[in-house]
UniProtKB/TrEMBL annotation:
The lineage of its organism: Bacteria, Pseudomonadati, Pseudomonadota, Betaproteobacteria, Burkholderiales. PANTHER family: SUCCINATE DEHYDROGENASE HYDROPHOBIC MEMBRANE ANCHOR SUBUNIT. Its cofactor is heme. It is a multi-pass membrane protein. Pfam families: Sdh_cyt (PF01127). Keywords: Cell inner membrane, Cell membrane, Electron transport, Heme, Iron, Membrane, Metal-binding, Transmembrane, Transmembrane helix, Transport, Tricarboxylic acid cycle. NCBIfam families: succ_dehyd_anc. It comes from Castellaniella denitrificans. Membrane-anchoring subunit of succinate dehydrogenase (SDH). Signal peptide: none annotated. The gene is sdhD. InterPro entries: SQR/QFR_C/D, Succ_DH_anchor, SuccDH_FuR_B_TM-su. The keyword Transmembrane helix applies. Gene3D superfamilies: Fumarate reductase/succinate dehydrogenase, transmembrane subunit (1.20.1300.10). It is found in: Cell inner membrane. This is Succinate dehydrogenase hydrophobic membrane anchor subunit.
Length: 126
């Protein structure tokens, strides 16, 4: 009795995307969740949320270390990496043409890099 194959046959070349991506998705999700809790606590505890209070939050320092900016940067880099893993998997699953998949992946990388650069320009110009 012959077995039927469902779906495409994927060539496994030793990249081990599955385990690493699983860990990356969970780690970045935890970082974003913790940062979201910090933002929510700040919003609850600060009596007036205006531009100056948010600016003070992001400009918070411990000694010479800009903690507010570093935490925001870590959260945004986590968001970008989390998005890359998810969107790349979507392109790998649903874009069947190699050329189209490569084009979409390059477009996604360019968009994420531009978003990170734009974020950095805004946050680190405080």
């Amino acid at each position: 009795m012959a077995q039927e194959r469902i779906g495409r046959k994927r060539l496994v070349v030793g990249a081990h995307y599955g385990t690493r991506d699983f860990i990356v998705q969970r780690a970045t999700a935890v970082i974003m969740a913790v940062y979201t809790l910090v933002l929510v606590l700040y919003a609850v505890l600060v009596p007036s949320l205006d531009f100056d209070s948010w600016r003070a939050f992001f400009a918070f320092t411990l000694g010479a270390l800009p903690v507010g900016q570093l935490l925001a940067t870590l959260a945004f880099l986590s968001l970008a990496w989390h998005a890359w893993v998810g969107v790349r998997d979507i392109w790998m699953d649903y874009a069947h043409s190699d050329g189209l998949r490569l084009f979409l992946q390059v477009l996604t990388i360019l968009w994420l890099v531009a978003a990170v650069v734009f974020f950095g320009q805004i946050l680190w110009s405080l």
